Amino acid sequence: MARIDAFLKLGLAQGCSDVHLSVGVPPMLRMNGDLMPIKFRELSDVELESYVHEILTEKQRETLEEGHDLDFSYVAEEGGRFRVNVFRKVTGYGAVFRFIPSDVPTLEQLNTPKVITDFCDYHQGMVLVTGSTGTGKSTTLAAMINHLNETRNLNIISLEDPIEFVHPSKKCQVIQRELGTHLTSFADGVRSAMREDPDVILVGELRDADTISMAMTAAETGHLVLGTLHTTGAVKTIDRVIDALPGELREQTKAFLSMSLKAVVTQVLVKTPDGRGRRAVMEILVNNRAIAKLITTDQTHQIPTQLQTGKEYGMQMMDQALLEAINAKQVDPDDAFRYANDKRKFTRFVTDKELVPTVGLGGNEKAVQ
């Protein structure tokens, strides 16, 4: 058994989401969003390097020595699957292990809004799930793939970096391909997938212009494309896609988004009231005629108004979703306050009044005491 498995086993026993290993500090666990050290000595550079090398292939060691980060999946000997990132820094190696449950979650278990299930019924177009790192984008997409796998007869091709949740084929044929193992880039993966009779293509991350362009082509030619972006709102997502492609393609990109972008889901993970878990809270954009016109006329700054008034379509702003979750006692008000955009609406719910003065409320407004 690799020595690093002992830390992973401890982390799983504690119910953590991530295990962090870094030179100069003891191993640390991510528990419900907070990073906490375990009772262990500070790791030395030689010690951590030896731990990491035990689980790497020769090719991975060479890649790491060349100065590149590594992303791969790892299965501990005593069970437990992890998404791993290994990197080099000033003091030596660092590694983060993200636990991946063996059972693929369902949309019902995640308590997602009903409209998320509706997105799975689209036959073509693009649905984007966005948010910063560690907000559960992969989990939401996995649940969507699982829903498709149980309800429709499709060919699903998933391009990931690395493969996280493993989907056994049920009603669907699910083909999972990994960056660096089965394909050289997401763009090449999408290009190949389009020749493999797909119904649904999942792109792990739309990280560059080539990938975005190929994903757009796939969505325009009769496929449902699911993908992620590291953006923190619907408007920022649309602007990011437009800005990612060359200027001469700007009008073409806006036309694509107005017609083929079906929805944008932006999510954060907020602590539950008991502090023992976290729940995804989502901002949701559902493309309609009004939003399409705002995109084509460079008025994306007016999209939030459409989200606020588009409840009948399943739309909601992040602040609306947070307030609703607070009133339903589904999330901790103090943690929700941290994610709110207009924090003035949330100050009356805050129990830790020290939080309020630490954020800028804008103008000359006084903090609520």
Polypeptide structure, described:
With 369 residues, the chain is an alpha/beta fold. It is 34% helix and 23% strand. It has helices at residues 4-14, 45-53, 58-65, 107-110, 114-119, 137-151, 186-193, 209-220, 234-244, 250-260, 289-296, 303-309, 318-327, 333-339; strands at 18-22, 28-31, 34-37, 70-75, 81-89, 92-100, 125-130, 155-160, 173-178, 200-203, 224-229, 261-271, 278-286. The protein has a seven-stranded mixed beta sheet with strand order 9-8-10-11-7-12-13, with helices on both faces. A six-stranded antiparallel beta sheet has the order 3-2-1-6-5-4, with helices on one face. Helix 7 runs parallel beside helix 8 and helix 10 (250-260) runs antiparallel to helix 11. The longest helix has 15 residues, at 137-151. It is globular, with a radius of gyration of 22 Å. The relative contact order is 0.09.
Structural class: alpha/beta
Classify the beta-strand content into a percent band: 15-25%
Span between N and C termini?
55 Å
SS element count, helices: 14
Low-confidence segments, given as residue ranges, are 361-369
Helix content: 25-40%
Kindly state the number of beta strands.
Answer: 13
- Kindly report the average pLDDT value: 93
SSE succession: HEEEHHEEEHHEHEEHEHEHHEEHHHH
Shape: globular
Query: What is Rg?
Result: 22 Å
| Major beta-sheet overview | 7 strands, mixed
Q: Largest beta sheet: what is the strand line-up? A: 9-8-10-11-7-12-13
